[in-house]
Amino acid sequence: MKSKDAEMKIPESELEAEDRGAEEERPRESDSNILDLSSDYPRDKHISIQRHLADLEKLADLRDDERKPCPLCPEEKFKACYSHKLHRHLQNLHWKVSVEFEGYRMCICHLSCRPVKPNLVGDQTLSKMGAHYHCIICSATIVRRTDMIGHINRHVNKGETESRFSTVRAPKSSYKVVKESATDVQVLPNHSTPQKTDSYFNPKMKLNRQLIFCALAVLAGERKPIECLDAFGATGIMGLQWAKHLRSSVKVTINDCNENSVTMIKENCHLNKMKVKLNSREEDNGETVGNGEENSDTIEVTKMDANVVMHLRSFDFIHLDPFGTSVNYLDSAFRNVRNLGIVSLTSTDISSLYAKAQHVALRHYGCNIVRTEYYKELAARAVIAAVTRAAARCNKGIEVLLAVALEHFVLVVVRVIRGPSTADDSAKKVRYLIHCQWCEERVFQKEGNMVEENPYQQLPCDCHGSMPGKTAVLLGPLWSGALFNTGFLRRMLLEAVQYGLDEAQPLLKTLVCEAECTTPKHFSTHSPGDENKQEECGVYIRTQNTSAESYLVHGKRKSEEVLRSAAKRQRAEHCAEHPPFYYNVHRHSIKGMNMPKLNKFLNYLSEAGYRVSRTHFDPMGVRTNAPLAQFKTILMKYSTPTYVGAQAEGPVHLPGEIQVGEEVPAAAVMKVEEAEGAEDKSGVATTVFTESYPTHCAAE
């Protein structure tokens, strides 16, 4: 009997141990069901996710005569209580702070689902759990309610609206159709937030897309067909505009590394009645036109990394528009781009380029920049310097066709010319800039490897001699060449007029005037030379309207002489490029004086014998080859005092020894600046000119 009792006791002890182990493992198994993906569909949701408060109360099994624990709180946090107290607890602590989504409420949970980090003493805190929410869509546990709301919104923006872990695209009803330049694209409701959606579409970049289209149209007029690549397609709006308007002149390839974006690009191609080519196979939706236009209505869509697709294939036109900087893709872009091809890139990291995050600019572009009055042109030249170095590494030189820096982006368009000699010539134009922080004077550092004893001597101002300490900084390396090609810009303007791109036309007119350094009243749509011929980096490019008779005359020797003379004329015009940088009129205005109107001031500078134009970088900027001292002198001459109300507008008379058009000593300008802030005894701010200009203002 004892042996039998012993035999009976052994299994009883084993059963008790198994029961205790099962009780200990039950919450863990439930937790694993909460956090892990179940293969069954529909997936069981967490107990904290309910539709109504009554459903939550059913879990507690409320009874008047019994104490019941809270189903969402551990016993050490909330002890078992009667129904009326438990009802208030569920309503106030769990239901009122819940997050609602599609009829469900994600209540706050205090169970052992999310462990808290152990403290410094090293106590066992796995039993102490923090309050959190369970996502109805995925297995995430979020602590804060605001973070949970943002987490759900990100799921909705990505189209993940079903309560499963699989990514499901949003239904067709949630898509929005946007039309731009006769091209329709489908976008998600959050299309303007690039960090939260795959199909990024920014309506503010319409001007950028029009400029790139004009550049491609000009290239398509030189030779056809050309292979062009939109490396970051997103919705495919840019590539669709190329194929829809330029037709058989281009072979468009749209690339994106995101699968959802590639799917949307294909849908947008079908929406615009375009065929899609994938892996040498064409997908036709049955709505395209006849077989005669098969090649012109076909767009190739690829799903690769941008660096990979540019390494594998050669293109005539490449456009880079990533989210942020594009320096990571420059080496791949210049590796296989064809000779006389075009590379355009849009940089949207304006916080670093506009000197708000200088350490980021140094990291990405290897350039030291500070905030100056010409910071936008500084950003464009920093980007071109990075482009030049990337092209030179591939034994290619560049010719800058266009550089635009606006509020949201910096656009650079360059033509690529193969050869080590052109690469060396382009690399020599990357130089450092000496910038005076006191008077904003600037000058590019002289070429050469010899160390100069006093680099301040290169600056036209004498701030270093008259001011204590160091007054100048060394910026760069920057591009020191021209930012515009006049012939290319004129042809872009003609393309903009032809295709009715109204937003790009005013900017292109301003760019043409800025490239020629002339005022808008001297602007004309016809260039002084032959508008059908264009020379870039010594290479002649024929346009579509150029005939053989315009290049050749009878006889081989005469034709060579004509080409030689035309090249000399083009080089002479090319050497008279626009001056670098510009001056802001407000920055150099004088206190107590009313400045003349900007257009009148441009005329005054032009009458003084200087080249002058406005600039798109700054609405109050003036691009001129006049020295800063002469710029201030002319501005001072034609300004009127503010305290003389009845005085007619007219120039302030200067002493006879200082004439407009002559170099003004910097000391005289400094005397004017020192006298700007003087105040009279009555406390009214006035301007004293008795030392420098006593003739006119002493009588006042």
TrEMBL record:
<keyword id="KW-1017">Isopeptide bond</keyword>
<keyword id="KW-0949">S-adenosyl-L-methionine</keyword>
<dbReference type="InterPro" id="IPR013087">
    <property type="entry name" value="Znf_C2H2_type"/>
</dbReference>
<comment type="similarity">
    <text>Belongs to the class I-like SAM-binding methyltransferase superfamily. Trm1 family.</text>
</comment>
<keyword id="KW-0819">tRNA processing</keyword>
<keyword id="KW-0808">Transferase</keyword>
<feature type="compositionally biased region" description="Basic and acidic residues">
    <location>
        <begin position="1"/>
        <end position="31"/>
    </location>
</feature>
<dbReference type="GO" id="GO:0002940">
    <property type="term" value="P:tRNA N2-guanine methylation"/>
</dbReference>
<feature type="domain" description="C2H2-type">
    <location>
        <begin position="135"/>
        <end position="155"/>
    </location>
</feature>
<keyword id="KW-0863">Zinc-finger</keyword>
<dbReference type="InterPro" id="IPR042296">
    <property type="entry name" value="tRNA_met_Trm1_C"/>
</dbReference>
<keyword id="KW-0694">RNA-binding</keyword>
<dbReference type="GO" id="GO:0008270">
    <property type="term" value="F:zinc ion binding"/>
</dbReference>
<keyword id="KW-0597">Phosphoprotein</keyword>
<dbReference type="GO" id="GO:0000049">
    <property type="term" value="F:tRNA binding"/>
</dbReference>
<keyword id="KW-0832">Ubl conjugation</keyword>
<dbReference type="InterPro" id="IPR029063">
    <property type="entry name" value="SAM-dependent_MTases_sf"/>
</dbReference>
<keyword id="KW-0539">Nucleus</keyword>
<dbReference type="GO" id="GO:0005730">
    <property type="term" value="C:nucleolus"/>
</dbReference>
<protein>
    <recommendedName>
        <fullName>tRNA (guanine(27)-N(2))-dimethyltransferase</fullName>
    </recommendedName>
</protein>
<keyword id="KW-0820">tRNA-binding</keyword>
<feature type="region of interest" description="Disordered">
    <location>
        <begin position="1"/>
        <end position="41"/>
    </location>
</feature>
<keyword id="KW-0862">Zinc</keyword>
<dbReference type="Pfam" id="PF02005">
    <property type="entry name" value="TRM"/>
</dbReference>
<dbReference type="GO" id="GO:0016423">
    <property type="term" value="F:tRNA (guanine) methyltransferase activity"/>
</dbReference>
<dbReference type="InterPro" id="IPR002905">
    <property type="entry name" value="Trm1"/>
</dbReference>
<keyword id="KW-0489">Methyltransferase</keyword>
<keyword id="KW-0479">Metal-binding</keyword>
